[in-house]
Amino acid sequence: MKHLRSILMGLLxxxxxxxPSAFSVGGGVILGLDSYKKVVNNNVGFMVNGAWETTLLRxxxxxxxxxxxxxxxGKAYNGLKTDLTLVQVAGDILLETGSPKFRGIFGLSLNxxxxxxxxxxxxxxxxxxxxxxxxxxxxxxxxxxxxxxxNYSRHMTFEALFQVTELAGRQRNDVLIRRGADNPGWLQLxxxxxx
Length: 195
Fold this sequence. Notes:
Elements: H1 2-17, E1 23-32, H2 34-40, E2 44-55, E3 62-72, E4 81-96, E5 102-118, E6 140-151, E7 156-165, E8 185-194
């Protein structure tokens, strides 16, 4: 809840610092790939963000900086459930294509996850079916973003974005064998409104 309040305050301040035509808000549905499903035992979530469009180091290359929150609810698996909340800062380069309606997206992200675990896991070392997919996800994680956006009108854009992020590295203190993937990936389908 503390992170959510900070993000919402940040989103409220962004329009004051940006050129009104450069600020946008967006949201999308997360369609998880296998690596995502191994972590939360679900393949659906959603993401909201605020962004500011500029140029990359005064080069004239369009770029976008965004601050987003992802909600990744889990489903119970053998009595265990893992829910994730993601806070993401991303920087994207917007690549021109042959059509003025389409632009490619290539970017990197910094990600901070919060996990909520429900249920009691087995203490048997080899019982991976009754262990949470990871032990903890503390720290800032890197990520990669690739996609395409379609400029529907002056204010409305639709986008398809592939994302993959780090989540949990090798944890030396953890003796249990876990079934989860370390790097969840997903396809994000959404829209963006530019003011």
